[in-house]
Structures are given as C-alpha cells and as structure tokens.
Specification:
By secondary structure, the chain is mostly beta strands. The protein has one helix spanning 2-18; strands spanning 20-23, 26-33, 36-44, 49-66, 69-86, 95-102, 105-109, 115-118, 121-124. The protein contains one helix and nine strands, in the order αβββββββββ. Strands 1, 2, 3, 4, 5, 6 and 7 form a seven-stranded antiparallel β-sheet that branches. Strands 8-9 form a two-stranded antiparallel sheet. The chain is rod-shaped, with a radius of gyration of 21 Å.
C-alpha cells in the first residue's frame, strides 16, 4: 500500500505541474482528485457559457495480513462527466450543471483460514 501511495503522490505532482492549457476558447486540463487521474476538455462558446467533458480513472490493489487474517482489496475509480458552466458576471465565478457517471467500485474480501480471534472471541471458519 505504501508503494501505491508514493506512486499516487508522484502522479499528483506531475499533473499539478502539467496544469492546463487554453487556446482559441478550447482548453485541456489534467487533474488528480478523489475521482482518480483525469483529463478534461472544455470549450467556451461565449463569455458566459463553457461546456466541459471529463474522464477519470485510477486503480489500486492491496493485500495485508492483520491478526492472521488476509485482507484483499481492489479499488477501481472511473467516471465521466459532461458539464455546462454559466459565468453570470463574465469572469471566473460560475455555476455548473451537468452529468457525472460514476462507475467506481471497491471490492474487499477476507477469507479466513482455521480459527481466529476478534475482540477476545474465537471464531472458526
């Protein structure tokens, strides 16, 4: 898990450094958030309206043994968004409405072997 977290911080640093770029009312941005690693493409139609499309994805797996119980976890983050920004004052302040499809999943299993103790009580598998 520690190795996965250090990789996540490196990726976050790279995407923070990449930031975003814009030309002719079209912008592209890279991001790292609780939705995963992502990219977003935006288009300004007027000084008051912008449309954005985004995709995010990130996966990590981990296995740990705690009190003789093996825990296996898989986290798969994936989402897509379609957003419309309204800038009522024509500046950076805006309201956003849109659609976010969240296909994220987490699976965790802990198959017991033999008997095990949890909180002072012994259980048989």
């Amino acid at each position: 898990m520690k190795n996965g977290m250090s990789k996540a911080w490196v990726v976050a640093g790279l995407f923070t450094a990449v930031g975003s770029a814009q030309a002719d009312g079209i912008g592209i941005g890279a991001r790292y958030s609780t939705l995963g690693v992502g990219v977003e493409l935006g288009k300004s139609f007027t000084d008051f309206f912008t449309a954005r499309v985004g995709l995010n994805k990130y996966s990590i797996s981990d296995t740990q043994n705690i009190d003789d119980i093996q825990y296996n976890t898989d986290l798969d983050l994936q989402s897509a968004s379609l957003l419309l920004d309204w800038h009522p004052l024509g500046g950076s302040f805006h309201f956003t409405a849109g659609y976010l499809n969240n296909g994220s999943e987490m699976n965790a299993i802990a198959p017991p072997t033999g008997s095990f103790d949890i909180g002072g009580t012994t259980y048989d598998s």
